[in-house]
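Subject: sequence -> structure tokens, single chain

Hey, anyone have a minute? Need the predicted structure for the following. Not urgent.
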Amino acid sequence: MIGNVDDPTEIKRYRDVVRKASIHGDYVIIGIEHYSTFDKNMIFRILNYDATTYINQVESKKEVYPVGSFVFYTGDKKWNTPLELNDYFDIPEELKAYINEWKFIFVDVKEIDTSKIKDEQTRYFIEAIQEMYKGNFEGLHRRIKMNRDNFIYAAIITGSLDLIRDLPEGDEIDMCEGMERMAEGFRNEGRKEGEKREKKTALLSLLKVKLGNVSNQLEQAIQNSSIEKLNTLTLSIFDITNEDDVLKIIN
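Reply:
Had a minute. Here:
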């Protein structure tokens, strides 16, 4: 609780992923946030998450472990907001020694060195996203079998909703066939009315997967939304946790 006694404010924050890990026998708590859009106040969110995690450990009266925070970014543009607290402010050099620093580890999916990824499906997934953003479909024409869910996530991240239509059943997708479909989808990016309807249908299908269900109110709001709003919603799909998040974007 923060604020004055008469009007306190309760702040609740939930990380996307939290894991307790052992590294050479020493434990650490790893927190991960996934973002596909910019948040200029990200450093404050991370500071809040980290501080809350430390306080919860102290109040539990158990051993306190160090906390590391990572932001996994999957947007198409270059991240341009501060990664460290002191970079957020214009602090005179002589005062910097008196201001506590806070930072997070930033990981841009477009810049990951996939040669260091041991898990095959994870490597395929990251490489697919990287090549999709580059528009390098020839580089994706390899005879590999990609996990079906990973293929869907890659299409969501890169805004390629046309790929979701008529997706073959099964646990795996032939990468060569899938990338041909993606290339065709990008080549036919025109904004005709029929294509708009298909995009809305595909996005509704993704929201049903993400949220479990979609109300009639939300479905109608999607149908009435402009293609620009739907594109914005697509880029923010991983940040959505409920229908209110969707309505804030498209209204």
